């Protein structure tokens, strides 16, 4: 098929995510290798968002492809009720990489159903019904995960599930007050959260769910002490602490899991994306030994036909092995430091860059109209003139593929990117930000 034919057929028969269907112009991608994508005209792009921040090992990884083929030759699918080698092995590998307090895994198809099951498990285990989560969060688009999501993508589900309560994020850059230190910021946010927990009735709260580091909504990195502060609230009131590591897990932050950066042990961890890097889709929920033991004599009322799909588990095993053998964590820390330096330089140079936030190879460039007032380049929840999509198109025209959310550009390349490739890509970003500077100066 020609590129044009693919595009026409796609638009005629596919419904695309989060979009008005009548105004779409999807790129036609025909090849992907390493950190690169090629469109049907042969133009090459650097995949600077790792697709949806899931292609951690890049495209065309032979180890993973061969593992899937080998498993496919053996058997592609058998029911989750059986004990299967790939599922058993991968569950052990997941638990081996988590804190020693964690016990077992329930596999899902992706991130949303990982969160669905995480909140179900917390409700079953505690016998309570309320779930607290934050406004600037995305946890998936299904009904439960969409209801714990705080940003506008939850609106289509409203009125939401009773007892799902939102609290404010530790978004220091946009806080109405300023703080002298990270510890002071932590005191502020934890005091407010504790107060809100009191008002909600701690005995009714099953879980507090957080993206350990907020991803799509702008790489919001909690101040020092914040997560231990949430842990303490959870411990004081018997509330389950659920860390959503769907985007932040699996080496993205320079640690295997984002929560390791903050010296905290969650009760429940949801994960997806980087466990297989999309070679076959997979997600899961890891629970503490205590929770796992509870389900020894209580029914785990969760089930999915494809829980722990053998092909996905084979891909997951190869993927986790690859992180180790290719020393991905060390690489992320080295190249991530370069990304941070470059972004600090962009913030200093460009009038349109209000803030940069980065951890490992995961970062956000927050665009403003005015650095002093911090007025966002586009208003929250709206971009009527398509300003952000025009910026993304400019990047794309120069071979830099990524996406934006609100007034934020995501920079999260595959974790195999070299320093040279990163510098080449960020020079493109620099050029485009010059154009945005010129635009806001008008
Ligand atoms: N949780 C987080 C933090 C995410 O970033 C996402 C997706 O981007 C999800 C959950 C949902 O994952 P999925 O799209 O696999 O359902």
UniProtKB/TrEMBL annotation:
One of its GO terms (molecular function) is transaminase activity. Gene3D superfamilies: Aspartate Aminotransferase, domain 1 (3.90.1150.10), Type I PLP-dependent aspartate aminotransferase-like (Major domain) (3.40.640.10). Keywords: Pyridoxal phosphate. One of its GO terms (cellular component) is cytosol. Pfam families: Aminotran_3. InterPro entries: Aminotrans_3, PyrdxlP-dep_Trfase, PyrdxlP-dep_Trfase_major, PyrdxlP-dep_Trfase_small. NCBIfam families: PRK06062.1. Belongs to the class-III pyridoxal-phosphate-dependent aminotransferase family. This is Taurine---2-oxoglutarate transaminase.
